Amino acid sequence: MRRVSFKSRTLDIAGALHLPPDFDETRTWPALVLTTPGSSVKEQIGAIYGERMAARGFVALAFDPSYQGESGGEPRHLEDPSSRIEDIHCAVDFLMTLSFIDEARVGLLGICAGGGYGIAAAVTEHRFRAIGTVVASNIGSAFRGMQPDGDVVGTLRAVGAQRTAEARGAPAKEDPWIPDSLAEAHAQGVTDPDLLEAVWFYRESLYRHPNSTNRLLFRSNGYLLGFDAFHLVPDLLTQPLQIIVAGRRSATGQYENGQTLFDRSPSRDKDFFVVEGAGHYDMYFKPEYVDQAIERLTPFFVTRLGA
Fold first, then answer.
1. Which of 59, 171, 286, 295 is 20 to 30 A (C-alpha) from 152?
2. How distant, in Å, are the alpha carbons of 119, 194, 235 from that of 254?
3. What is the CB-side half-sphere exposure of residue 104 using CA atoms within 13 A?
4. pLDDT tens digits along 133-151
5. β partners of residue 8
């Protein structure tokens, strides 16, 4: 793995370039851009999938989004879909500057919210010759569904009031993406097994990372609630498409999002694969489920990109 950096607009983006075990700079290689879940950093799910795809002959680039992790940008902890999408375009720009990357053999692999962001980028980024997703999430619709009593407009009004306060000198408001510990989750009355697994993975497991702070700038809601990752899919997403979902449905909506993406895509080369028995967060790290995803993704990308 090589630590790399590239520019997204004016910001420095911190990346990790995962290389095949027989890597040779004098050859040209197929490459994948990995787009990762909301609140995640490149050392977590991006590293898990990046290492596995590199072992199968691909150069795999994972990176921290603008305003998060080791990447630059102020204010910190901003989640802005337009920035996330521009990061993806700029990741392709970066790969195009590397002499050992075959520009005709670049694909995208998106996980969870990164799957939705990747799709939103890919509708206009046709340097991606093939697209794979794992438990893809349309983060905009997810956030709209999470608002108390379904009151999206009420949240938008609160965002406006907070922005006014900050413009007048008030400190920025931040919230946790998820409870900061299992104890806190239980104290809040959380019983959803998928959310509890998310808390364990991000906050208490060996996969916890200090750069994944679990903080979301409140003004991010204004961008997220107006975002739809899939709205141009019927018109523009023509690339080969491999969709992988977890078989156990839950409040994350990953199965339904995958089905929607499959149904809307006009691609004549698309596949929908269910990892039976897996839950959403199982697909992040559990070998018995991640391996099934990799075994499906490998022939898909090999056939479309070569490896």
1. 171
2. 14, 11, 22
3. 1
4. 999 999 999 999 999 889 9
5. 11
Question: What six digits make up the tokens of 264?
Answer: 């809307």
At 169-199, the pLDDT tens digits run: 999 999 999 999 999 999 999 999 999 999 9
Q: What is the 3-state secondary structure (H, E, C) of the chain?
A: CEEEEEEECCEEEEEEEECCCCCCCCCCEEEEEEECCCCCCCCCHHHHHHHHHHHCCCEEEEECCCCCCCCCCCCCCCCCHHHHHHHHHHHHHHHHCCCCEEEEEEEEEEECHHHHHHHHHHCCCCCCCEEEEECCCCHHHHHHHHCHHHCHHHHHHHHHHHHHHHHCCCCCCEEECCCCCHHHHHHCCCCCHHHHHHHHHHHHCCCCCCCCCCEEECCHHHHHCCCCCCCCHHHHCCCCEEEEEECCCCCCCHHHHHHHHHHHCCCCCEEEEEECCCCCCHHHHCHHHHHHHHHHHHHHHHHHHCC
How much is the pLDDT for 307?
Answer: 67
Q: How far apart are CA 294 and CA 284, in angstroms?
A: 12
Question: With 90 as the cut, is the pLDDT of residue 119 above it?
Answer: yes
The tokens describing 116, both together, are 């939705």
